[in-house]
Amino acid sequence: MLKSIRFTFKLITLYLFSNLSIAESSIKPAQMNPERLHSIISDYTDNVKVNNNVISFDYEKVTIYCVWDANADRMRMIAPIANTSDLSSDLLELALKANYHTVLDARYAIGDDVLYAAFIHPLSPITKNEIESAIRQVSTSALTFGTSFTSGELVFPGNKAEQAKKGKSKSM
Predict the structure, then answer these.
(1) Which among 131, 155, 158, 116 is positioned nearest to 45, based on CA atoms?
(2) Which residue of 1, 34, 70, 141 lies most exposed, with the fewest beta carbons within 10 A?
(3) CATH number of the CATH domain containing 88
(4) Is 57 helix (H, G, I), strand (E, B) or coil?
């Protein structure tokens, strides 16, 4: 009888703890909102200012604007680089190629005749680490436009035809 009681106690304990661990593993971090977004940016960057739904700040000598729309659950970080009228078609083509190979989460984008380094993401699921990475990538993408065209985080290998052309031009 005592063995049966111990066995039943072990089963109940196992059941309770297994349900507790399932409940703990399903706890999600708090969803991002404009207040948390502002707090993370303020802790990570300099010269932070808020105007309605725009946070402007400086990071590594680059001014970045974070614009959000809580109703649409979207946010974007942008850093203006240049007026498109001041850029050659060759530079714009290189920016498009960089979007595929070297700027990754950040992107070069054109809006209202201005070229931007941009990062666009749903607001609620973004994490603190992703926000900090986005800030670094937008800043680096803006700083390296016209040179290495990189976000600094990762690089996908280039296409073989482009690499072959570069190799031939170097050997000529």
Answers:
(1) 131
(2) 1
(3) 3.30.1460.10
(4) strand
Domain that holds residue 117: 34-162
Residues 146-162 have pLDDT tens digits of 999 999 866 656 654 44
Number of helices (H), then strands (E), belonging to the chain: the values are: 5, 6
Lowest mean pLDDT among 47-56, 99-108, 133-142, 163-172: 163-172
Residue 163 has pLDDT above 70, yes or no: no
What sign results for the dihedral spanned by CA atoms 60, 63, 151, 170? negative
CA pair distance 70, 172, nearest whole angstrom: 55
CA angle centred on 32, ends 28 and 36, rounded to 5°: 120
* CB-based contact 32:66 (threshold 8 Å): no
Helix (H) or strand (E) holding 10: helix 2-25
Count of structural domains within the chain: 1
pTM of the predicted protein model? 0.75
- Please choose, from the candidates 57, 49, 139, the residue with its C-alpha nearest in 3D space to the C-alpha of residue 103: 139
10 has pLDDT over 70: no
